[in-house]
Design goal:
The complex is a heterodimer. Chain A is an alpha/beta fold. Chain A has 13 helices and 21 strands. Chain A folds into three domains: 11-72, Elongation Factor Tu (Ef-tu), domain 3 (Beta Barrel); 78-108 and 141-314, Rossmann fold (3-Layer(aba) Sandwich), CATH 3.40.50; 353-446, no CATH class. In chain A, the strands form four sheets. In chain A, strands 9, 13, 14, 15, 16, 17, 18, 19, 20 and 21 form a ten-stranded mixed beta sheet that branches. Chain A starts with 10 loop residues before the first strand and ends with a helix. Chain B is an alpha+beta fold. The chains are: A alpha/beta, B alpha+beta. At the A-B interface, strand 5, helix 6, helix 7 and helix 8 of A face strand 1, helix 3, helix 5 and helix 13 of B. Strand 5 of chain A pairs antiparallel with strand 1 of chain B.
Chain lengths: 447, 594
């Protein structure tokens, strides 16, 4: 760790209180949120009452003695930013893992928010080739969206695919409690795709202390702001897994004797998460920050405080689900949502996109009802049978995560399926679109 | 002489200040941190310790920093030039701030002091006036903006001088008023008012007696919102709260719309900034932004200012209500405001109420909702604030403190259902759970029946009944199977589906369908009920669904077409044919049977 102690800085050597995550001592002239080094470990001021200063020690307090050396740096946490961030991996403190230096200037992390009137409305589509995303839940630059997934689902793989296909200028990976295997997976995928020079990683693995994780998203987002604001680049930030970030928050708040709210989470969870996610922005001069995050769920429970608060902050969420009928992992069309899709579908894509998307999902819902009927032992009507056929084909050809086609092909595929199983009246889209895109001979055949 | 103090404790944005002087609850103070002045509000006083919540980040703040108390509560500045502005929660003009990022301690003037307004006097020398009486008016955008006797003036005054018509700045003298003790007071176009105190410069607040048209069928037809009424929209995330709010702000029949974006997504505010200057106000032909003011405290802006933002918005609404205008105030979301209260209560180590919220949460919420309402002003005119708040219940569970407290305070309940949202039945307002208490008000029923149609309220109740019975039969069909129930059940179910698809569902993104005026709602409800009242004969249940789908499809095409246009008439004709054909078939069969 780089230590910037100067001769005139006072060294404190008497700790008053120690918990697993915090230390308290008497000190004067200390600024709120400033950094200190406690026994060689980085710490941050979280509370000052009179002369009593409480510090949160990122690496934990194991082995720290009451006579440990404490030096205050007089600075808030910062990251050195410059072009040479690209292609490199850093730890949670923003120190290059390759041992080298960064030549840029220092930036405080967790800085101020963008004035809302200086934002531009996001309007640039991000094509991923995955129809479950592009057709039903289209992503837009400047958007923030998480995967809500159980730990066993392949969210990191899907995220890596999305990142590589997204045509971003920079991809910044914030690994929050990533397993070492997943960290190496990301590294290999990006390396194999020849994209490593566009990648920047801030990595805290499960081997590192949990409280250190609190720094990772801010580090990643500060780097993103540098490239988006100063270089007008399109930056994609991947944060995985923010459930572990929230867990780290609850550890600290617990050590500080705060009253927990729902699910033992701190009462400020909403604001804490919003502070990160709201860094997603489209600037008028072309720079943008798009955030794709992962929130792991426990048993698919989205009412837990972490996914629940996340859902209220982000612009939609993506759910993965294994469809046992076709044996593939699909993007769940019911529970997934991209709030910003309205800004591009039917505008940047073909005019009938919104109606086709809604019709297909509605028919898929009819299939789900038919399936319930079947399970309850009732006879199916002819319509029910057709919806079931449609559902399998739709799942296989459009919802599965291994699909990689462009959006026009997705729309054509949807019409193919409509024609095969339904009449135009059953699909219920605007007549003008039926006339234009529903192939004539097939339409008459269906009637 | 202002009270001074020094910082002695810092816990996130809660700061403890020690002072020897006097300080008041809710008083504003500034913490002099380096070059910046951080605004804060007193929230508790114990001995010489004053607890303040800082409206900014406290990063770098040190013990011993000087604090200056201001001697007044959090105030807004009221005067011409508020319309179309984008304010933060403390009424700073966001457009006047420099740079891409918000700078701490950067406070900008809410009004333009150089801009000239054309003033016309309404009062004359010698008039007896009181607080809220109109002295004159200026043109603000298209709207006559009244210059009033300041709300802080108590008792009766006599107009001593009134400025002649002409162009003036807001700080110019508009009138001189003499109070009962003979002292003169100068009145300009600007006045200040503390946001947490309701403006009560009106004669009477009656029960709401007419409705506020919103363009939403499921609201206007089935659960009407009264002008001056209150309502709330709870719903899990992804159920379409924001879309509903945005459409209300676009289409509602209000003179002025104030949007308090309280702890919500910045991109949603940007949508309003970007689209409203482009969109036409269907009533005036001007741009929507001209009747809209935004108070933005997005979720990444300082938490303490979130609470202030809803009060700032309400106070501005009350100001314009005093001019005899119809105001629609939307707050998205009041849950974020409650959470801000919870964060502070937590930091002050108060004993928590349910879910960690402060014990007085229900009182705070009902107090706030009670500031809405239609009023008779002192000059006999009416003005109104219709308030609709959204609630974001944790985990989508409506049995949580914010939803429960709000339910007690608001008269309309528009429940967004996850199930409806999942099956893309938008707006996902649940037809069974939602209610409007105003439908039970005799004065509202009378208003509806006299303005829309004699039998309107009966029809609405009939429609609600069909929907409820449809839901019940659907459950029966699910239990007993399609062929395990009489054919009649299928008919009942599909009649309710018809109402669902044609009346309840509405495409918020379709240029025509997104706004459905009352006369059109009247027409469509009559059409739909006509079909529901008819008896149709079917051979088997399998015929029912396809036939109704075709009927629904035709009615939907009518919804998408311009009212009474050629297309509209054509689909109407097709529909009529379809119905006669089915009836004829039924008659044929009757004859055969005979």
């Amino acid at each position: 760790m780089e230590r910037e102690t100067s001769a005139f800085q006072r060294i404190y050597t008497r700790l008053f209180q120690l918990t697993k995550a915090t230390v308290s001592l008497k000190a004067t002239g200390i600024g709120n949120e400033e950094l200190a080094i406690v026994d060689g470990r980085l710490a941050q001021v979280v509370k000052i009452i009179g002369e009593m200063v409480t510090l949160q020690v990122f690496a934990g307090t194991e082995g720290i003695a009451t006579n440990a050396e404490v030096v205050f740096t007089g600075k808030a946490p910062a990251l050195r930013v410059g072009e040479d961030l690209a292609g490199r991996f850093f730890n949670a403190y923003g120190e290059p893992m390759d041992g080298g230096q960064i030549l840029g200037q220092e930036r405080e992390i967790g800085g101020p928010s963008v004035n809302p009137v200086r934002r531009k409305q996001p309007s640039e589509l991000i094509a991923t080739g995955i129809a479950g995303i592009d057709l039903n839940n289209t992503l837009v630059t400047g958007q923030k969206i998480p995967f809500f997934a159980d730990p066993d689902q392949p969210f990191n793989q899907v995220m890596a695919n999305v990142a590589l296909r997204a045509k971003a200028d920079k991809i910044i990976l914030g690994g929050v409690g990533l397993t070492n295997d997943d960290y190496l997976y990301f590294k290999h995928v990006f390396d194999n795709a020849g994209a490593l020079d566009r990648i920047i990683g801030f990595i805290n693995t499960t081997e590192n202390p949990p409280v250190e994780r609190l720094l990772v998203p801010d580090m990643a987002l500060s780097a993103a702001e540098y490239f988006a604001v100063e270089k007008q680049e399109k930056v994609l930030v991947l944060l995985t897994d923010l459930t572990l970030y929230a867990d780290a928050l609850s550890i600290v708040s617990n050590r500080m004797d705060q009253i927990p709210s729902k699910d033992s989470m701190p009462g400020s969870l909403y604001s804490d998460l919003a502070r990160l996610y709201e860094k997603a922005v489209q600037f008028p001069d072309g720079g943008s920050i798009t955030i794709i995050a992962v929130t792991t769920l426990s048993g698919g429970d989205i009412t837990h405080a972490i996914p629940d608060n996340t859902g209220y902050i982000t612009e939609g969420q993506l759910f993965l689900r294994k469809d046992s009928d076709v044996g593939k992992v699909i993007v769940d069309p019911f529970r997934s949502l991209s709030r910003l899709k309205q800004l591009v579908i039917g505008k940047k894509t073909r005019e009938d996109h919104p109606q086709v998307m809604n019709a297909a999902v509605r028919l898929y819902a009819d299939a789900a009802n038919a399936k319930t009927k079947l399970e309850n032992g009732f006879d199916l009507t002819d319509y029910d049978e057709r919806t079931l056929g449609f559902a399998s084909a739709y799942s296989e050809k459009l919802l599965a995560i291994d699909v990689n086609i462009d959006i026009d092909t997705m729309l054509e595929t949807a019409y193919e399926l409509f024609r095969e199983y339904f009449s135009p009246a059953e699909v219920g889209i605007k007549q003008v679109f039926v006339d234009k895109y529903w192939k004539k001979e097939a339409a008459t055949a269906a009637e | 002489m202002k009270t001074k103090g020094k910082v002695t404790g810092i816990i996130a944005n809660l700061v403890v200040v020690e002072t020897e002087g006097t300080a008041a609850q809710n008083e504003i103070c500034f913490i002099l941190h380096g070059d910046s002045r951080l605004m804060a509000e007193v929230i508790r006083i114990t001995g010489n310790k004053v607890y303040v919540q800082v409206f900014e980040s406290t990063r770098g703040l040190k013990i011993g920093t000087d604090v200056e108390f201001q001697g007044h509560m959090l105030e807004v500045t009221l005067g011409p030039g508020i319309l179309s502005r984008n304010y933060d929660g403390l009424q700073n003009d966001l457009d006047k701030m420099e740079g891409v990022f918000l700078k701490r301690g950067d406070y900008t003037a809410p009004l333009d002091h150089e801009r000239k307004f054309a003033f016309t006097p309404l009062a004359s020398v010698g008039d007896k006036v009181e607080a809220g009486i109109w002295l004159g008016e200026v043109k603000e955008n298209w709207m006559p903006h009244k210059i009033m006797v300041p709300f802080t003036f108590k008792g009766e005054y006599v107009v001593k001088e009134i400025t002649a018509a002409g162009e003036y700045c807001i700080d110019d003298q508009m009138a001189v008023l003499t109070d009962e003790s003979g002292r003169d007071h100068v009145v300009t176009m600007v006045q200040k008012w503390p946001v947490k105190v309701p403006i009560r410069a009106y004669r009477e607040k009656p029960r709401p007696f007419r409705i506020l048209e919103t363009g939403y069928r499921v609201i206007d037809t089935l659960n009407p919102m009264a002008e001056g009424g209150t309502g709330f929209i709870p719903g899990p995330f992804g159920s379409g709260k924001t879309v509903v709010q945005h459409n209300l702000s676009r289409n509602a029949e209000a003179d002025l719309v104030i949007i308090a974006a309280c702890g919500e997504r910045a991109n949603e505010v940007v949508e309003v900034f970007t689209e409203f200057p482009e969109l036409d106000d269907p009533r005036t032909g001007r741009k929507l932004i001209e009747r809209t003011t935004i108070i933005a405290n997005t979720s990444n802006m300082p938490v303490a200012a979130r609470e202030a933002s809803v009060y700032t918005a309400m106070t501005i609404a009350e100001y314009y209500r005093s001019m005899g205008l119809r105001i629609l105030l939307l707050a998205d979301s009041t849950s974020r405001w409650a959470q801000a209260l919870r964060e502070m209560s937590n930091r002050m180590e108060e004993l928590p109420g349910p879910d960690g919220f402060p014990m007085d949460l229900p009182a705070i919420i009902s107090n706030f909702y009670s500031r809405a309402g239609i009023v008779y002003l002192n000059n006999g005119e009416t003005g109104s604030i219709t308030f609709i708040g959204t609630v974001s219940p944790a985990g989508g569970n409506l049995k949580e403190p914010v939803t429960e407290s709000t339910k007690k305070a608001a008269r309309c309940f528009y429940a967004l259902s996850q199930q409806r949202a999942d099956s893309k039945r938008y707006p996902a307002i649940d037809p069974i759970d939602s209610y409007s208490k105003y439908l039970e008000y005799p004065e509202i029923a009378e208003y509806l029946n006299s303005t829309i149609a004699d039998n309107w309220t009966d029809n609405v109740l009939e429609a609600k009944d069909i929907l409820l019975r449809g839901k019940e039969t659907y459950e029966q069909i699910n239990i007993l199977g399609d062929d395990g129930v009489p054919l009649d059940y299928h008919l009942k179910y599909w009649k309710s589906e018809l109402l669902d698809f044609v009346i309840l569902q509405q495409d918020a993104f379709d240029p025509i369908d997104q706004r459905c005026p009352l006369d059109r709602q009247h027409f469509m409800l009559d059409q739909a009920l006509d079909i529901c009242r008819k008896e149709f004969e079917f051979e088997s249940f399998e015929e029912v669904a396809p036939w109704f789908k075709e009927v629904i499809n035709l009615l939907k095409q009518m919804n998408f077409a311009e009212f009474n246009s050629e297309d509209f008439e054509r689909y109407g004709k097709l529909l009529a044919d379809k119905l006669t054909e089915r009836e004829a078939k039924a008659e044929d069969e009757d004859e055969k049977a005979a």
